[in-house]
Amino acid sequence: MKRLSLFAIFIFSCLIANAQEYSGVSKTHKIDSKVFESEREIRVFVPFSYTENNTQKYPSIYLFDGQFDAFFDMTSGTMDYMSQMGELNEYIIIGIKTTYRSREFTPMYADERTKKDWGDTEIGQAQLLEDHLEKEVFPLVENNYRVEPFKLAIGHSLGGTFVLNALLSRPDFFQAVIAISPNLSYDYEQIVTRFDNYFKSNASMKKFIYMSAGTIGSMENRFRSSAEKLDRVIKYHNPKELMYYYTVMDGENHSTTPLFTISKGFQEMAKIWTISEDKKKTLIDDASQPFVKDLKLFYNNLSEWANYKVLPSINEINSFGYDCLALDKTDEALKVFNWAIELYPDDANIYDSKAEALAKSGDMKQAKVFYKKAIDVLEKTKSNYDSENYEYYKDMFNKNLNALDKS
Fold first, then answer.
1. Cβ-count burial 180-208 (b if 16+ within 10 Å, e if not)
2. Confidence (pTM)
3. Which of 16, 238, 252, 365 has the most crowded CB, counting CB atoms within 10 A?
C-alpha cells in the first residue's frame, strides 16, 4: 500500500476516506541546566512516520527561538507539509527555548565600543548556549530519540547570528544552517571578518548555508548591508564543498522574511536530500541500468556528503516503488520493493506494496503469498503500532487479500 502520495489530491482523499491523521507530534522536555544554573526547556517535534515504527532514524533540525510557539509551529508545519508532499525528507525538530537572546546568541565582542552601544554588560556569551547544547541538549535528544548525526540549525535575527557563528566556533555542531535576516552588523561585523580570515587559511568548508535578508525597514536594511558583505566574502573565496545560497527578499521586512526563508531553505536542502520528479522519471525510463541501482548510487553519494550512511526512509523507498508502477515499470518496482524489504524487513506495509506490484505483473499466486506475509509481519510487530494504526493496516491488508481471492 502506498502510505503517502506525492500528489496532494491523493493524500487528501485518503485522509477523508480512511480517517487517518498524518500529522506529527511534539513534546516539551525540562532540563535542570548546570550550564545556565536554571531550568531550561526544549520542544521536540517528531514526524508522523516516527510513530509508525520503532527502528528508523532521522536527521534533526535545531530551531533557535523555540520559545516562540508560532515560529516553531510554522517551521514544523512547513517541514511536515513538504515531506508529506514528497518535496522534503523528514526531520526531528528540536526547538531551543531561549530566555536572554542578546546574551545567548552573541559571541564575545572584539570591540569595546559594542558593550557601550548595546548598554548590556552580559552580551557576548554565546559559549554558554553552545555548552548547553553540547553537554545537555544533544545528549538528551540522542538518548531519547532516534536521530542520525546530521544536524541543520535555523535561526532568525540574533538566532541567525548564532548559527553562523557556530560554524566557526563549534564546527562539529551543525552540517547545515539557515540564517534568516541575521544580525551581522553586531560588533562591527565581527562574523564577516572572521569568515574572511577563516577562508584565507581554509580552502574548503563542507557545509550548507542558506542566508536571507529583506529590504523593508531601517534595521533590516542595516542587517542586509552586512549580509551582503558576507556574501561578497564567500563568493570571493569560493570555498570548495560549500553549498551556499543568499537570497534578497524584495518587499519583505524583518518579521516576514521567516515565512519565505524557511520554505526556500528547505527547498534548497531538498535538492541535496531528494530526487526531483523529473529526475526520477528520467532514471526510471533509462534502460541502461536498473532504477534501484541509480537509487543506491544516489544514497551512496549523499552519505559521502552527510558523513554518515544515509538510506531512504520507509516512506521514501515505498514511494519510489509506486513511482515505477505509475510508469508501468513493474519489474523496476519489484526490484525497489525487494530492496525495501532488505532494508526494513519488519515493516508490514512493504510486503503489501510488493504484493500489489506482483498482482499488477499478473503473478497472482505470489501476490497472495506477500499479502499473507504482510498480515503475518503486522501480527509479529503489533507492539510497534498504536491500536488505531494496527486496526487500520489489518483491515487494509485483509481487504487487499480478499479482493485478490475474488478476482
1. bbbbbbbbebbbbebbbebbeeeeebebb
2. 0.85
3. 252
